[in-house]
Amino acid sequence: MFASLPLTALRAFESASRLSSFKAAAEELSVTPTAISHQIRSLEDWLGVALFERLPRQVRLTEGGERLFRSLHGALLEVAQSVDTLRPHRSGSSLTLSTTAAFAALWLVPRLGRFYAQHPHINVRIDTHCEVIDLHQDASVDLVLRYSLDDYPNLYGLCLFDESFAVYGSPEQVALAARRTPTLISVRWHNSRLYAHGWQAWCAKAGERWLDQQPVNREYDEEHYALQAAIAGQGLVLASNVLVSESVASGLLMPYRGEVQVDGAGYSALCVPGRERHPPVRAFFRWLQDEARLSGLTPRAQPSAATAGNPA
């Protein structure tokens, strides 16, 4: 059934596609760049289609090459994970996830102890770099926790919860806001679609005329800085109900007119199809589902990824 498959050439192609470089693929597979080039050329001859565009100092996948890479990468990843489950692991397993620094600090890390209590042999590495990771290209990351308005049809996804924005402050600042215009604290987001005109939208919905009175406005680059400013009594913050939940539960912050909320986007856990069956990833998905249910925050819609569902 598989006797005619050029497995060596396919492995060379997968490495070169993932790394976007024949030279890097050669280093990964411990062969010469010329050998990688020959393997890929033989694969193209076997298929009868070009897989790469050869450009000055770089290569780029053709449409056919992109299609082959997506299916091949997922298949090889599943084989590698199946083999990995059969090998003895003396020091347990690990997984790497990517998310924002704010979500990690304000929601994930405070709850992570419960995951370790259930799975003491699984080590979680959290990557909080700002760049959006292409999971089909970067095999070092097992899953991402992403906040977005977008769909991800080529990824396995679990929709955790939707976000809304409300106004919060220390008990003293909330009491003062009923008598005078407060200092307003907000976040300068890199993606303006997710926080555009936030205070304007909230004030319009609440019928508050604070913006007409030219209030003092404190602006921060990250949500956790804005929340710390609010906890310190520096004003009221327009904040995510997801990210503020720990501070509200501990009494550090409380809502001001909590019934007035502005809709945000949604949080999803995403991985390359097939990777959700890897035991550490499967365990983390299940734990995330439990934590989402405990939080009482349910998504407004079904998971957006075409391959979404419960981990097997």
TrEMBL record:
Transcription keyword on record: yes
GO biological process, one term: positive regulation of biosynthetic process
Domain of life: Bacteria
Family to which the UniProt record says this protein belongs: Belongs to the LysR transcriptional regulatory family.
SUPFAM superfamilies tied to this protein: Periplasmic binding protein-like II (SSF53850), Winged helix' DNA-binding domain (SSF46785)
InterPro entries hit by this protein: LysR-type_TF_proteobact-type (IPR058163), LysR_HTH_N (IPR000847), LysR_subst-bd (IPR005119), WH-like_DNA-bd_sf (IPR036388), WH_DNA-bd_sf (IPR036390)
Domain HTH lysR-type: 5-62
MF-aspect GO terms: DNA-binding transcription factor activity; sequence-specific DNA binding
PROSITE patterns on file: HTH_LYSR (PS50931)
Organism in which the protein naturally occurs: Pseudomonas hamedanensis
Entry keyword annotation includes Transcription regulation: yes
UniProt entry keywords in alphabetical sequence: Activator, DNA-binding, Transcription, Transcription regulation
Any Pfam family matching the protein: HTH_1
The protein, known as: LysR family transcriptional regulator
